[in-house]
Amino acid sequence: MTAPSPILPRRAALAGLLLLGACGPTRLAPLAGPPKGRVILVRGLANMFSTGLNVMTAELRQADYDASVHNHVEGRRLVEETVAAVNAGTLPRPLVLIGHSFGADEVLRMGGMLGAGNVPVDLVITFDPTVVGTAPRGPKRVVNFYQERDPLSRKVEPAAGFDGTIENRLVEGESHLSIEKARYLHAEVLAMIEGIRPAPAAPPAVTPLITAPPPPARAARLPVPPRPPASRVRAG
What we know:
The chain contains five helices and eight strands; from the N terminus they run αβαβαβαβββββα. The protein is an alpha/beta fold and 236 residues long.
């Protein structure tokens, strides 16, 4: 009896990954109030390994951000929808893109496409990108969390024309498949997003009512002394 070929299980596993990648969008809980910003999260390979982004999406929505998580193959459509929202005046700010693995590659591309369409991205956060190691012009700030357990270079460098800031943060003790699941990094992400929220407008100063000044007091009139009687004596 011959042993089963290892090729068939691998093909079956790959087919399963592709089917999972074709799943519909994640159900989203409604926001409690007006959105404090728009956050687009993008998963990595086969739309199944970046489960930490699912948790992060729920956390951001609990904080009243319009957050949604997507497959990395949806990047162009997400860009088109974002541009349409800007043109309609319905996009809440700040605008943040977050991605892991292939999704990290995609949010870097999306940041460039949005920048080319005159839609600046306030913040791009990447978790361990794979093949895209440069940030194009468009994002104002890029923060890259990466690990060094494999020989691939996971750092992000500026591409030609990039005029924002880039921070590469080495995360020790995590792997490519665990880095986006680290809850302490989720807390850092939320703090960064909260930090770029526009400050609420100061309440208008109370302007005192302007009343007409009282009329000036009338000067007291002294009584006119009576005229002295005409002298009856004439000079002679």
